[in-house]
Amino acid sequence: MATKKKQVVKKKQVGSTVKVALLGFGTVGSSVAQVLAASKFPGIELTHIFNRDVQRKRSSPGAKAVPASVVWTEDINDILNSKVDVVVELMGGLNPVEGWLRKALASGKSVVTANKQLIAYRGASLFKLAAANNVHLVYGAAVAGGVPVIPGMLQGLGGDQARRLSGILNGTCNYILNRMEGGADYATVLADAQQLGYAEADPSADVDGFDARAKLCILSRIALHAELNPDAVTTQTISTIEAIDFTYAKELNCTIRQVSQAERNGKAIHARVAPMLVPLSSPMAWSHGTQNMVVVSGRFGGDVVFSGHGAGGEPTAVAVVSDLLAVAQNCSSVQLPVRKREVTGEFMAPHYLRFVVDDKPGIVSAIAGALAKVGANIDSLLQTPGHPKHRLPFVVTTEPSLTSTIEKAMKSIAKLDCMLEKPLCLQILVPEDKSE
Ligand SMILES: NC(=O)C1=CN([C@@H]2O[C@H](COP(=O)(O)OP(=O)(O)OC[C@H]3O[C@@H](n4cnc5c(N)ncnc54)[C@H](OP(=O)(O)O)[C@@H]3O)[C@@H](O)[C@H]2O)C=CC1
Ligand SMILES: N[C@@H](CC=O)C(=O)O
């Protein structure tokens, strides 16, 4: 009988001191320098920092933590042609980062990155490149900032068969929705989130769900062993949520959170990122500020919850430095085969539908008729007092229906003359029934 030779991937042995280059000296990059300076880990030496307009960065407050020996540069070739062992990429985006990191990996440098877009879209081929060059590519900070959800899933849950992932994967959205819940207005809190360094360079990545979608794809690869095309995952913006939605959500014993969910259904994966009504009794409703939360439901181990700060320089720097320590100590992680999977945004769930109308007789029956036509049942109708008749916000909730069914009804309801703005449709999150 032919025996298969066991392949042992041995990562490149790094020297006694690991030389580190930082690409990007922004919120996370400067915090990494600070954490390294504060902890003085033996065997790790920050040798280079790359950023555009280096003079501006050298005079920023974060630069005070940088040792005088560090070479600051605006020329990426100073890093790629140097003897650094690990490149820590904290710039973000696909271009020009992808090309530079490919060169770094190909030349035998390990890479630590917090770049979720890069890992979601290009992870599969970058992992191959890293393996072919016997170097590490680690990305623990790419999902949930300072929460060790990636190493936790890779190491701690590799032995389970995950069926479902759900959670809050964007700190900026959680911060915004949490403050709106307390009465603040959207534009003000978004500006605060940007100022505090939580938001992406283009904050639409946060509020429109693209950041959380990339993170969901990364987690799906690890936990569901499914390679998803991020562009195929449905997203819904939080920017259409208004103060009135928190009032109605409260009436329904809920609040609103941006929720990311993915679950296995045969060979397909159902996945979406959207603001949803979350019961006040759910742990997701208790996440405040930039807190992220990931619930992994496993076949054997049941639910495991990861929670903590998902955005901000210091928490994220902890994840980056932890990855750096793992690379410096040549620790490899569990690797299981991953398959390409089709993705659909279809979920069976109750829905919250909010309308703003110029009130006149027959509106409720028109809405009920459109819902009945697609086979959706109304569960409740809510109307708080005190709103002007010519601009009346009210809510209909439905019994569980397919996302596409509700969307079909909403298309025809949106065309009614009385509608003053596009109706809002939010899924209502229902805790999984564990009794089956
Ligand atoms: N902030 C957070 O809470 C978290 C961020 N992340 C991820 O970490 C990475 C960094 O985020 P963050 O620190 O917030 O981002 P910042 O925008 O604060 O920092 C990025 C840095 O990279 C520099 N940079 C960007 N593009 C280039 C380029 N083409 N050439 C040279 N320098 C460049 C920027 O320079 P300049 O100042 O001139 O723009 C800036 O100094 C991103 O991938 C992000 O998604 C992950 C988890 C949490
Ligand atoms: N902008 C992101 C930062 C961390 O990934 C977020 O708000 O979660």
TrEMBL record:
Pathway annotation: Amino-acid biosynthesis; L-methionine biosynthesis via de novo pathway; L-homoserine from L-aspartate: step 3/3; Amino-acid biosynthesis; L-threonine biosynthesis; L-threonine from L-aspartate: step 3/5
PROSITE patterns given in the database record: ACT, HOMOSER_DHGENASE
Binding site for NADPH: 116
Catalytic site positions: 215 (proton donor)
Ranges of residues in domain ACT: 352-427
Binding-site positions, L-homoserine: 200
EC code: 1.1.1.3
Sites where the protein binds NADP(+): 23-30
Domain of life: Bacteria
GO molecular function ontology, one term from the record: homoserine dehydrogenase activity
UniProt similarity note: Belongs to the homoserine dehydrogenase family.
Descriptive protein name: Homoserine dehydrogenase
